[in-house]
Amino acid sequence: MATLSCQFHLAIHRLPCNARVRPSFSCSVQPSQSNIKVVINGAAKEIGRAAVIAVTKARGMEVAGAVDSYCVGEDIGKVCDMEEPLEIPIVNDLTMVLGSISQSKETGVVVDFTKPSAVYDNVKQATAFGLRSVVYVPRITVDTISALSAFCEKASMGCLVAPTLSIGSILLQQAAISASFHYNNVEIVESRAHATDLPSPDAIQIANNLSNLGQIYNREDLSTDVSARGQVLGQDGVRVHSMVLPGLPSSTTVYFSGPGEVYTIKHDITDVQCLMPGLLLAIRKVARLKHLVYGLEKFL
Q1: What is the spatial distance between Cα 39 and Cα 178, in angstroms, rounded to a whole number?
Q2: Which DSSP symbol is given to 20?
């Protein structure tokens, strides 16, 4: 795609009194910066479909491939209920998609929504074809992240591992860290519609952030013998209570208390669309990285 650049010139010289001044107008065609080619790995999932729509609407990027083991052969635009097909079939072979993009010599990013056991191999494949990676897969182990970091450093290729893509969730975590310096009592209460992965990655991340500050919380109630008091994460007394009821929004609330007051921070997620601004930011940022970065908050 090219852009049209035009310039208007007005030149005035010593001319007779009855002479006219004639402006000159010139145009030139200049190449524009190409879009980032985005491959969605896990495209048939709910978050994958939302990502396809978000990338398609975003400026400076385009969907270049859709990978999943479901709906193979179907047009990803139709799977996402878009008005027009994208003429991009879903395939179950990541290598085939990477090969076609690498031949174009354009900037490419693979967005990984798969599973923890597949992340390392997926990032290695993307790197081998010259593509960066954005990884949003819960429950990735510390060992996997360390191995990916060493691999990306050696290959000088960017990778962003995001425990969350929700900007609101990141802001809640940052506010909780700030509050922890002023309060000695804290508990986390979360609600989910389905009983999977509890405590949630968000709650674990908040508890880990607070535990890394070297403070012991809830000193007057450190006992872990009563199950109804919630699960204590780490050694610093941060408790997490998980409530599961169909129809509940995905909600995380952090309660702090001090003498005579309670300070509450709450974040609700009602739709997967809340993750899309963070995803688009991650795609734009990782395109310039040459190493692994853990956490989208590094770019806020």
Answers
A1: 37
A2: P
- Map tokens 């065609």 to a residue: 29
Superfamily name with CATH number, domain 167-269:
Dihydrodipicolinate Reductase; domain 2 (3.30.360.10)
Q: Which sign does the torsion angle of CA 280, 66, 196, 141 carry? A: negative
How far is 92 from 70, CA to CA, in rounded Å? 8
- List, in order, residues 6 or more apart from 40 with CB less than 8 Å away: 48, 51, 52, 55, 63, 65, 66, 67, 76, 111, 113
The CATH class for the domain spanning 36-161+273-299 reads alpha beta
| Burial state string for 9-45 with b = 16 or more CB within 10 A and e = fewer than 16 | eeeeeeeeeeeeeeeeeeeeeeeeeebbbbbbbbbbb
Tens digit of each residue's pLDDT (9 = 90 or more) over 82-134: 999 999 999 999 999 999 888 877 899 999 999 999 999 999 999 999 999 99
Count Cα atoms within 13 angstroms, Cβ side, for 291.
Answer: 7
Domain regions of the chain by residue span: 2-31, 36-161+273-299, 167-269
